[in-house]
Amino acid sequence: MASENPDTNAALQASGESTLKKATKKAQKQIDQLFNVSLHIAVTGESGTGKSSFINAIRELDSDDEGAAKTGVTETTTDPTPYEHPTMPNVTLWDLPGIGTPKFKARTYLKKMQFNRYDFFIIISSERFKENDIMLAKEIKRRKKLFYFVRSKIDNDIRAEETKKSFNKEETLSQIKRNCLENLEGIENPKVFLISSEDIKAFDYEKLVETLMLDLPQHKQYALLQSVPITSVAMLQKKVKMFEKAAWAAALCSGVIAVAPVPGLSVVCDASILVAFFTKCFYSFGLDDKSLKKLSERINKPQLESFIKSPLVVALTAKSTARLSVSAVAGGAVLEYLCSLVPGVGNAAAAGISFVCTLTLLKNGLKELENAALMVLKEAGLQ
Prior knowledge:
- The protein has 383 residues and is an alpha/beta fold.
- The protein is 48% helix and 8% strand.
- It contains 15 helices and six strands.
- It has a six-stranded mixed β-sheet, sandwiched between helices.
- Strand 2 (81-84) and strand 3 (91-95) form a beta hairpin.
- Helix 11 (271-284) packs parallel to helix 15.
- The radius of gyration is 23 Å and the shape is globular.
- GO terms for molecular function: GTP binding; hydrolase activity.
- Residues 1-25, 65-88 are annotated as: Disordered.
């Protein structure tokens, strides 16, 4: 139903709903999904296949970093061990003990691992998938959960083959995948991905993420996409589109238009929601100091840590925390800069901002963070 208030009409149009009550409910649900929905990823397989290394790679940690999953040539995991994502604490990767060890027989494995806790399973092998892997996959499927096969340590296979005169990288990768599929003959349409934890951006990493994005429910997609490392411009664009879709909800939730739709009443901005929104973007795009430092070390470009001059990035770096949520207290420097993105808004501390202006602010700030991330990708040679 149309309203005399242009801000209300704009909010209804952005939400696709017919009433403000429905639009508000939808906005609150979408923001809750963006900020708070949990994702639990189980990483399993036989011992020594590189489960812990895979978990560290997805979390962008080295094996000797604080909080990294323990790695070793023998089975180092004796119980299901949770590893919280360093910047997205609602995402947890679980390092499960190796299946088929004397302590964890294949037939009782899922019961001991508390099967229902996990959203999906990654079954890892560093050579050929074996009977235990197939048995586990069949049981996961029987219980109607998602599972994916990861053939790890692909970099080792490439190094072993590239000394041969007849070496062809693409043919080698094709042969490895064919062998995997042959070993998984008892599984209908198995989804197999070739991954190197030494260089997560190589091989099938982005294909794995794309497949998960197609298979998971939308609210779980939000959690996944925020947490995965950016390895290309295409991956960054996926993240940007996700935040663009959520911007209208943040604009609506940040104002009293949700509870007091009085014609002509400007929206008093709940700044904590805006700062939380941009903080999510900030960490998801890898613009925080720890992420930039880690990337600069990997590509041997120390200047990467300090070359971003975006005022919004600088403000968020100074005031933000990885655990900032909807109820967080916003930093003054961040707010001051945010409101400068919308001409005529004035002081940020108690700004009366309409829905349209708030949405404009969010889109402009998101664009600035996107541009900063593009600069990082260009400097890192990941375009």
